[in-house]
Amino acid sequence: MNIRQESSVDGTVGSPTLEALYHDLDMFINELNLSSDQRRSSDQVNQNGGYEDETQGYSPVLENYTRFSTTECIEQPKKPTIIEEKPHQTTPPVSPSFLRVNNKEDYIFTTRTSSLNRTISSSSGRSLNNRIPPSPKIIFSNPTSPLAFEMPNVLEDEDAFPNYALLSFISSNFITAVRSLNERRRIFCTAEYPLSFNGEEAIDLLRSFLPDSLATPIYLKIARALMKTHPPLIAPIPYSEKSVRKNKLYNSTNEIYTLLTTDQEIQGVYTPLTRCYSISCLPGQPECYSPLCPNRLLQQPDNIQQKLMAPSVGSSVSHDTSISRAWSASVSKEILMSLPKNEISRQEAIHELIYTEEDYVRDLRLLDELYVKELLNAQCIEESRRQEFCDKVFNNYKDILNIHKELCDDLKDHQAYCQSISAIGSVNQVGDIFLRHVNRFQDAYLRYGPQVVLAEYEAKREAETNMLFQNFIREKEKRAESRRLPFRHFIILPVTRLQRYSLLLDAVLKKTPEDNPDKVHIATCIDIIKGVATKVDEATIETKNTLRIYEINQRIRFKPGEPHELDLLKPGRKLIKEGVLTRKSHLVVETIELRVFLFDHLLLMTKEKKAPNKADDVEYVVSKRPIPMELLHIQEATEGFSIGLRTMNSTATSTYASSSLLSPTNGSFANASSSSPFGSNSHPILIQHLGRHGADYMLYAESAASRVEWKEKVVEAKAMLEMSNMDKRVFEIRSLSDTTFGGSSASSLHNHGKVTCTVPFTSSTNIRMIAVGTQQGIWMGIEGDTNTIKLVLSISDVTQIAVLEDHHILLILADKTLYAYALDPLVPKDSRRTTVDKPHQKVAQHITFFHAGVCNGRTIVVAMKKRGVDSNFKVLEPVCGDLRDPNNSKKFFAKSGLFSKMPSWFKSYMEFYIGTESYSLHFLKARLVVVCARGFEIINLEALSMNRNLPDPSHPDFAFVQQKGQELRPLGMFRCKENYLLCYDAFVFMVNTHGSFVREAPLIEWEGVPQAVAFYYPYVIGFDPRFIEIRHVETGELVQVLAGIHMRCLQFINNAIAPVIHGCMAHPFKPDFQYVFQLVGTFEPPL
């Protein structure tokens, strides 16, 4: 039926305008009912396209029209189809003002004019397309309007025309966007909150699926609305304190939020995004007559909204100081009025304990995410040392993080439980929770706390030398999550937190009632934490000492061409003392200040100078050669170490200085200290560097107390070194004579001349005895008992003695004459009886030295007589048998007449000579070794023509020996397993049985200048006048040093089981006496 006719029947008065409108509507309805034949004739317009009606809106213009159903289109391939309306759903027909036809080539829009003549052209379509945006994201407010949408080829595609006002649509798309975001990037809290994002990211995510023409404040309001839904979709994480307190979302990168997962679908309508009921209202068009038109939001200037919503300067920091964190601020006034004041204080203390624990865990997580993990993946530090650097700086922070994360979770869970069961929400107790975790503190904090000072040093040093690392730290410090806190804050945080626990818990304890279990639990926790803190402080003292060593090592400078290996960075190294000592120049004109460092392994003297690169820094230029602790000797301080006493000697130096015998430097320094040119206020310290590379240094302390302290610290350092190397105390000195033999300055009662030699033997009663030779005679006594030593033979200038054990003969070399005495008659048996008859014989004259022993199974005595440059040797063999046997003694002691002689005890076995100067003689199993200027002459007594000299001077392997020339002195040769040990006063090396150099064995260079050597496998012992030097022959290591004055070797007997080594030195505490000792091995001799 014609619409106009229907209107006429109703009696409606028509105007030209209304008539034209009716005509347009009739034409539009007719177009919708075109037959399929008519639609086929319109290929140009309708190809691959069709009209569609997706609107559910209502137009008041068509309120008198009846609804209709669209005619089903004829299905033909590649032909336009008219979209059917959904069954059981009636909508007003779409206005034909703008209809889009979907074409393969372009989009053509048809328009209607007031003349009712419709023309279809591509040009008109393009002009309209330029004027009307096709995207539904822009034209969204009224999808019922035909201007709002393009017409797709699908039926009722809801995704193409979403209803943005539905919260279900907004929430589902926002969740998808957040998940996609966290797959692409990680932030510091991603591990704990895998669906986290900051406020700025929330705005960007909403803009990605909502119309992008909205002002930023609109998106912010939408995001905030998602926090108020039921259930809420967005919630701030505990780190974002301002958002938590105000329960509001901020457009800031500093505030972090997370999605709250729930199975319940969020439903509702956000009214500002609803469609305008005016069908002709579109964004960008003139004002709508609706008073609450949603499209007006699109027309509001964005800069005004952003100005209103702009955050303040303080909003960049999550901690909002204007918001009270007190417990009383979170509860109502009525609750506060109902509680006692003491309970309010207790709840405040508990609340502070809990929220500060949250802060602590948050910062530990920031340290983990922001610094550690990013640094491990950063390129600012070389990959080869990146992990090691992180271990030094961050140590075991993860252990602490895990402990406190569990503690914090338990505290928060208990707090939530208390709030759920009580309207007041007060926490009943926390001590039991702490008690479950506090026992884990010690291991974690004792490992982390003391290392903090070293961690700061490592980071500071790296930043000074590595600009990339410096920039990395600065960039992290500027990050909002760091809250503008320096890197150091996160490093030292565990230490400061540990110290604060006792204060926080004590505040709770003071307000806790006596009947509350927390009274006991918290007290126990405080005691445990204080104990841990005390141990951390004690350990920190050691690490601060280590830090100072690192700083010294960094500032150490060497003179050109004089580098030294200080080994300051060895783990466990300690600085015992540092300070300023002065010394005088050689001309005694000026005072020079020295910065002296006493470490646990050496003493270092330096000159302090200003650093050229830093105005407030200094450098330490090494002034003197570093003194190893083993070779450091302080007069009146360390003398007792050689005899096992680790206390400082306080003996006056008067007698010390007056004895030229006991002072290797003839008392020059001692005299200087007693008559110092610097007046009575000077406080000298004589520091001695033992060895060929050492020297004596007279330094001055600022006070007597300072001098005593320096000496005490040196004694402490040497004692620490010995205690830490107990396995290196392989020899000890045992006294043979303490105060029997005085020195040259001793009284006549004790002045028996210089001790020159000793020999042990066994008496007829099987008592271990010792014979001592001096410049005035022979003394005998029980070994180790000073009081039993008696003078048994007055004979001048004794230089060497020996005992033939099988024959009980004592050989004495006195005044270059070799005597043989019957041993038993000399042994003092009773102080009241003395043996007048002392059988003896003169064996040889003009003898320089002799040696007695067993060679090739034969007991012999070899005496050397010097003739010019040659050394003549006479080999004697005893024929008297055992003189302890009465038959032998009767035969060889008796004289046949008044002027007759006793039968000779020895017979001449053979003689040989060496055409060079000889120094000593050693016995091998089947050979003799003559130590001479050429080296070591090997003598075969059975075939003298087969003698050979070691080492071979022509062999290139021994060129280092020849380079020393005449200044090199051989000392001894010993059998060492399958090789031979050749000892000189400069070095020791090995040769094999063929005389070839053993390359596998070390070349041992002596620290001192030994005058004699001894061998006690696996150690070779050198006797320097100022110390005994003990070396391991297989490694060359300096094992032990025994310091003393005027050290001498008196006797060395190379027994197969336990060699006998006797020595003498000035008494450590009684310098007027000579101290005779035996060097005894404390180790288990290897087989």
From TrEMBL:
Gene3D superfamilies: Dbl homology (DH) domain, Pleckstrin-homology domain (PH domain)/Phosphotyrosine-binding domain (PTB). It comes from the Eukaryota. It holds the Pfam family CNH. PROSITE patterns: CNH (PS50219), DH_2 (PS50010). SUPFAM superfamilies: DBL homology domain (DH-domain), PH domain-like. Residues 752-1057 form the CNH domain. Residues 345-539 form the DH domain. Residues 37-60 are annotated as: Disordered. Keywords: Guanine-nucleotide releasing factor, Phosphoprotein. PANTHER family: RHO1 GDP-GTP EXCHANGE PROTEIN 1-RELATED, RHO1 GUANINE NUCLEOTIDE EXCHANGE FACTOR TUS1. This is RHO1 GDP-GTP exchange protein 2.
